[in-house]
Protein 1
Amino acid sequence: MESTSGLPVTYLLKPGELTLKGGNKREFERALRRNLETLLRFTGAVVSPAQGRYFVHASKDDAEKVEEALSRLIGISGWAKTRVCGKTPEEVLRACVETAGECYDSGIRTFKVEARRTDKSFPLDSYAIRSQGGSAILEAWPGLRVDVRSPQGIINVEIRERAYVYGMEHRGLRGLPVGTAGRGLLLLSGGIDSPVAGFMMLSRGMRVDAVYFHAYPYTSEEARQKVARLAEILGRYALGMKLYTVGFTAVQLRIKEGAPEPWSTVLLRMAMMECAEKLALRECLKCLITGESLSQVASQTIENLSCTQSRISLPVLRPLIGMDKEDIIRKSEALGAYAVSILPYEDCCVIFSPPHPVLRGRPAEAEELYQKLDLAGLIGEALHTCTVEKCAYPSRKPDNED
Ligand code: ATP
Ligand code: MG
């Protein structure tokens, strides 16, 4: 079957929340289209927007890459491979029957037909499309039954400039298109939480770069590579991301030698925040993002969080603050980071963590201890020597070629 552009496979995309965004709608639509075209860069696919929908026309050879791209696109509520046919009842009903056959083959036994007709000149109205479509399907596939309340499958018909018929709809990532909500700096460790935090801010449209504090040789090269892999995974949704690696060994050792042991984690976090803020200001990033979740560990009590951010003025976004660990893990799995996050390479914070950390640090005491350490020079030096890697996405290399 030929689509409008002459390419044989067509996908229909439903934009998500951006349909609600009044005045900014045009900007959101532009960003979504730009992101979609970026994701499809190494395919011959063509994008065409039409009245609240986007269509992607591709060759069969590109279908797998296109589907991979659609599964990474933030800002759509759903997408489906669609049949495109002429606007005659015969063609539309035939497409309904063929689509229902595919649904049957995939195990679906109950269905309903939904219809949307923006072209009112089409001879059947929505009700007639639903009822005639349903009858044609039942006649062709006696194993299928209609269930209007909770069908296993829905055959969708949209009559627009052409007629579109589709069955299996994939859930999109939702959220708002990346690039519509400013830029932030994610403090990315090798754990489960921070990649999820980064993904959540990407889903609100923020562009995200990441910083990792490395304490070589106390943390290994493998630990750094693990973080680089996490940045690469996030970069697939961010459409590329920068990863800054800051050597923090000297800072950590100064804290270990110069501060009471129970305070070491809180002071280290303060130093990371201070350094991250300097980096963010240098790179024109508007906020810091962390994977902190209230009371998950000693350094994340509300008192210790106050200490941690007491020296900085950029907003600190903590999208996981009220989340349960199991929900975080589920999100980590969904974004494809979990298997990497649980690799066993140690985190610098784990190595330096005290057996009996302070649980409710007072910001005034934290400040006094922090001042005594005189870290400004070491932090400045660490920033000066920090390295940056650009994880481009998409690249010509397939995702699974690690
Ligand atoms: P994660 O699983 O993301 O490491 P966590 O539960 O281990 O989180 P902590 O180790 O206490 O929590 O770290 C809290 C947050 O501080 C992390 O989510 C991350 O944003 C930041 N962070 C911790 N260690 C580092 C690091 N080495 N480099 C950059 N950011 C870090
Ligand atoms: Mg950690």
Note: The chain has a mean pLDDT of 92.
Protein 2
Amino acid sequence: MSSGRPEILFPLFAALDGLHGVGPKTALTLNHMAIEAPRDLLYTLPQSVIDRRPRDSVQGADLPATLTVEVEIGQHRPARSKTGAYRVTVEDAKTAFQIVFFHARGDYVARLLPFGSRRVVSGRVEFFDGMAQMVHPDHVLLPEDADTLPAFEPVYPLTAGLTQKAITKAVQDALSRAPELAEWADPALVTRENWPTWHDAMMHAHAPKGTGEMSLDSPARRRLAYDELFAHQLTLAMARTKKRAKRGFATSGDGRLRRKVLAALPYKPTNAQMRTIDEITDDLAAPLRMNRLLQGDVGSGKTLVAFMALLCVVEAGGQGVMMAPTEILARQHLEGLQPLAEDAGVVLELLTGRDKGSERRAKLDALARGDIHILVGTHAVFQKDVAFHDLRLAIIDEQHRFGVRQRLELGRKGQAVDVLVMTATPIPRSLALAQYGDMDVSVLDEKPPGRTPVKTALLSNEQMDSVIDRLRQAVAEGRQAYWVCPLVEESEVLDLTAAEDRFKRLRAALGEGVVGLVHGQMPHAEKDAAMARFVAGDTGVLVATTVIEVGVNVPNASIMVIERAETFGLAQLHQLRGRVGRGSEASTCLLLYQPPLNESGLKRLTTLRETDDGFRISEVDLEMRGAGDVLGTAQSGLPRFRIADLERQAGLMQIAQDDARKLLNDDPTLKSARGDAARVLLYLMRQEQAIQLISVG
Ligand code: ADP
Ligand code: MG
């Protein structure tokens, strides 16, 4: 088993300047387009195609258009001034038209289009002054050479310093070096989809016969897209297999703590909660290491699911840890879970960056002795000196910005710790597959009953006074409201000013003690105190920067005002709105915007007004922004697909995942003939680091 690149791929990874017409300078230019080897040229497909099929006349064509006709050359009218046009009258089978040159040397045109001879010309024809004309033809050929012109000419993306001719030539040479490769795709799939081989797919994709063959659904393009997705899913599947193959704890509790807590709950878990709890406890009971994602919209009740999983571990004599992204959220988890834990005799403790000195020491000692059963905290829980007695389960809450790489790092912390990642940012299925293909996914697709949907309205900020009047009335009725201040890009200082200004104005309008303020730069103690006053209902209105975005739960808060809502992203607005509508009372979300709204702002705000389905919202978001932006490609560890389109090929991604998992299941070390072909694919896709996952064992 060789560890290096297979020889058959050598020509595709050779130096670029070995290709026809590519010198060091062109090679450098291609590098700017992320083209570093002939392989990358193959994966740079034409973006359009020009129809060069000959016709007998320009007459009857829908102008302007690129046309190819045979003509007889007539009179030359050289330019009368330096900037004037050099015109040549020509005649095709039906009509006369002009071929026009600017800044052309007369002898050049005379040689190119000799009077009285016949030529095939191809170029863009348009009407000018009532006359059809072709300015600077792309091609001029002798009639007997006409068949050297391809019927359809591919058009490649360019960058400064690169001509269509140069890149076409380089691609053609790269194609001539493309080997026939053994089939890595499932044979049944290839038959069903009627796919060409990889080699033929490449040839076809670079020689599209008309725009129909440029479509994502053309067999050649679809096959090539599949290859990209399959290689990616194979990598994820290998990471998954490797993690699962690691011996994990087989943790099965006897259910005694869970029963107690469920009996004490003031509500019944939803079916979705019961189902996902089962999925997780099944994983815990298996001797494999769990690596699971729990996706659930805001308010779907992820905390209870997490707590049940933690209790299961405690029943079995182990410990669990739950990490939240912010201090406020960690504290809230502790406060929400503490009473339930006490009932069941479970010891819960909080650890954040704020724990210092002897108190921190004492907590760490208790943790190491096993006296603390469940630790809740911020990323401080993963500091080097935090040692557990018997850690079995790590839960990471609200980590929608947690990439593949970070997840791998986390896995390294505990030797066999089961991992559950929770996210409230629903992402479309295709992206979930692309980003979390190495994990198993549970979905909380049902919200607890009895919630009234949040009424959402758009208001211009000129109506701010009336909004404040409504707030005054609501507060008088004992309701509570959040007021989220605009996000000022790149500047926390400006965020702060905006929040403080709004705080002063609201305090002046509503009264001293009624309004609270939290923002990111506040000293911790002040932030906590302000939060606590709001949770206790002492303050009616909480002015905040987006620090409240993630997970905060105040059931009595039923109004959410978001200022300059148009500056926020869809997912973020959805998260913010999710802070209200958590009690039984009817809730309102007021989106204040600064007119005039641009198209994207309007689309975001109206989408939000029309639906509160997180998955639907995530799909619109994806449509509007593209996959890279939604996930943040750099941090998600998602490769840049050159051909596959995540937005429109979700189905293909699912097929790729199933196929990849199945292949690895049947042939875990990729030893079979198909496994061998799949290895070649991984090298072809520059995913060879994945091969280490199976070869290092
Ligand atoms: P999220 O999924 O956003 O983290 P939480 O776990 O914070 O949601 O739950 C939101 C609110 O719903 C909490 O107040 C919680 O107590 C409540 N809740 C959770 N599950 C149920 C249920 N099955 N029935 C009623 N209320 C529930
Ligand atoms: Mg939560």
Note: The first helix runs from residue 24 to 32.
